[in-house]
Design goal:
alpha+beta, Alpha-Beta Plaits, 264 residues, 7-stranded mixed sheet, 9 helices, 7 strands, 37% helix
Length: 264
């Protein structure tokens, strides 16, 4: 199959969501979630992927990436991580067939309080499902790596976090990040899925969303900027999806996108 075209908007931050084929719990074993994280670490080494946060659940993943290293970094990262995780699982289980749904979904997020909200949304994923009562209890995520910075085998790009959130030190960011999560738990602001983070092409201010729409050119036609829950989001029309999953297919172009109604 020919390599899919992708629309590229440089310099943005993307919230990536990807689910297992037919919503199956193919990541239910800790060893497979650990391998996904291990390949994410490898992608950071190989492609200089700038990873701001992530969570691996039993049937889907969340990943926040900063696009600051070139056009191919995000698709190469997803190709490596998704492809190798699927390959290892299928070989171990003597299984054939698709591991992932045919496309991953990417939402451009404005680098301000909207990104902070998105970070918390990713942190709270397993709290929303009732699996844990606090993000620190789920080891397959970026929360603990942010709160307890590593010296080796680091997945999170600490330097980018400090730059994006204009913090002088990791100690400052840790405190700020922890306060976001504690506030969400205290306000019980984690009990339901927020579709704007998984079904939109862009989330942010009115200016950011409309600028993103303009940069999409013809790909932005038919998209609407909608205000809801304190955010503007660029919505995409409902569309069916089909075809076998090809790891290198990205959705930084709207015709490679699909709506993930069941992702938390």
């Amino acid at each position: 199959m020919a390599r899919a075209n992708r629309h590229y908007i440089p310099g943005l931050i993307w919230h990536i969501t990807h689910r297992c084929h037919k919503r199956d719990f193919l990541l239910k074993f800790g060893r497979d979630r650990r391998r996904w994280v291990a390949w994410l670490f490898e992608a950071r080494k190989r492609f200089r992927a700038s990873i701001l946060n992530y969570t691996v659940t039993s049937n889907h993943i969340h990943l926040i990436l900063r696009d600051n290293a070139g056009e191919d970094v995000i698709p190469q990262t997803l190709q490596l991580v998704a492809g190798r995780t699927a390959q290892e699982y299928n070989q171990r289980k003597k299984r054939k067939g698709a591991f992932w749904e045919d496309r991953y979904h990417a939402t451009a997020v404005e680098a301000d309080n909207h990104l902070a909200r998105c970070m918390v949304y990713v942190d709270m994923n397993m709290v929303r499902t009732g699996m844990v009562s606090h993000p620190k209890e789920w080891p397959f995520s970026g929360y603990n790596e942010i709160q307890e910075p590593r010296v080796r085998y680091t997945v999170i790009d600490y330097e980018s976090l400090l730059e994006v959130f204009d913090c002088a030190s990791m100690a400052d960011f840790k405190e700020m990040h922890r306060s976001w999560v504690e506030e969400a738990i205290e306000k019980r602001n984690c009990g339901s899925r927020q579709a704007l983070w998984t079904e939109s092409l862009a989330v942010g201010s009115d200016a950011f969303v409309n600028k993103t729409k303009e940069e999409l050119c013809s790909k932005g036609c038919g998209r609407k900027a909608v205000f809801s829950d304190g955010c503007f989001s660029l919505q995409e029309p409902n569309a069916s999806y089909d075809g076998d999953f090809v790891p290198e297919n990205g959705i930084l172009r709207h015709n490679n996108a699909y709506l993930l109604r069941d992702i938390s």
